[in-house]
Design brief:
about 180 residues, alpha+beta, 4 helices, 4-stranded antiparallel sheet, 10 strands, elongated
Length: about 180
């Protein structure tokens, strides 16, 4: 029995490596398009059908433009507006001075698209912006922020990877401590 508990160590290490590798892969998605928030519109091309995320990226610890404007994505070939779904978990990736947050995700077929900042934010972001503007009286410097299009990663996969890292660490520690105690 004591020797069976030692098997928890390699099992925990293997699960830790798999979870950490996937966590890094999900957070380091490739930028497909980037546009400064100071511009009104821009065009980009998607090479594959799939789900994509609309991220806002910029300087940390400064006034954010979230809620000051809305987004519209239009297929150039058909003129059809792509519906944006609100990202409930608002996935965030932060460095020391810059960070990014997923605001929306959408499904798009391969083709050429136009993105525009049109001044129609959703209600939740608009309420947050009005509270922020009441507290902080500074204007937003749009040149510090950009809009990015990236491949979408569902939030539950990120949570699953984080739980995998925690569970694998506990498994490894139990594989070391339990045989010594028993």
């Amino acid at each position: 029995m004591k020797y069976l508990l030692f098997l928890l160590v390699p099992l925990g290490i293997a699960l830790f490596i798999i979870s950490l590798k996937n966590l890094i892969r999900f957070t380091k998605t490739e930028i497909l398009y980037e546009m400064s928030c100071s511009r009104d519109s821009g065009s980009f091309t998607l090479s594959d059908d799939g789900k994509y995320g609309l991220w806002i990226s910029g300087k940390l610890f400064s006034v954010s433009p979230v809620g000051n404007f809305g987004f519209r994505i239009i297929n150039q070939g058909t003129g059809e507006e792509i519906p944006l779904s609100l990202s409930i978990m608002h996935s965030k990736v932060n460095g020391f001075d810059k960070g990014r947050m997923e605001l929306y995700y959408f499904f798009a077929k391969k083709g050429r698209y136009v993105i525009s900042l049109d001044g129609r934010p959703n209600a939740i972001d608009k309420v947050g912006a009005s509270i922020r503007n009441a507290i902080i009286k500074q204007p937003v410097d749009l040149s510090k922020y950009s809009v990015q299009i990236r491949n979408h990663t569902p939030g539950f996969l990120l949570v699953l990877c984080i739980l995998g890292v925690i569970f694998s660490s506990m498994t490894t520690l139990l594989g070391i401590i339990l045989p010594v105690v028993l």
